[in-house]
Amino acid sequence: MLRSVSLSRRSFAVLTAGVVALGATGCARDEGPDELEAPWDAARSDVALATAAAGAFPDAAARFTAIADARRTHAEALATEIRRARPDRSEVLDAPPPTVTAPSSAADAATALARALGAARDAGATLAVTTARYRAGLVASVTASCAGWAEASAA
């Protein structure tokens, strides 16, 4: 049997406001950067470094250009996912790429790239196991590529 409940206008208004606030919190957008922005930014920095090194050291340009191309592809794939999931972050993704001065020698450039790629590999390995499953494949793919390029750069 149903019982009749009497609510004052004030109680009804408070209850309604609470229900609306609860519903709005469920629809709230994520705040702050997307978790893929850090690997995206690292990829762009690696592109800048590899491109600067390719221009400064013609004898090693092919190797540095290959790394720049791979990391550019990573940055584009990560940006596509960020734009899909978080269109509110487009302004960050539209920022100009970083500018980098090439290291003093091709060997120093290779070492700097190997370090940067190793850091990207390590950060990606951590992110791949903590991110949403549908993003894990993208992150793991970028991470595996960075691992390969880090080894090749160190050689």
TrEMBL record:
A GO molecular-function annotation: peptidase activity
Entry keywords, A to Z: Hydrolase, Protease
Chain positions covered by the region annotation Disordered: 86-106
Highest taxon above the source species: Bacteria
UniProt GO BP: proteolysis
Protein name per its UniProtKB record: Regulator of protease activity HflC (Stomatin/prohibitin superfamily)
Protein source organism: Actinomycetospora corticicola
Lineage: Bacteria, Bacillati, Actinomycetota, Actinomycetes, Pseudonocardiales
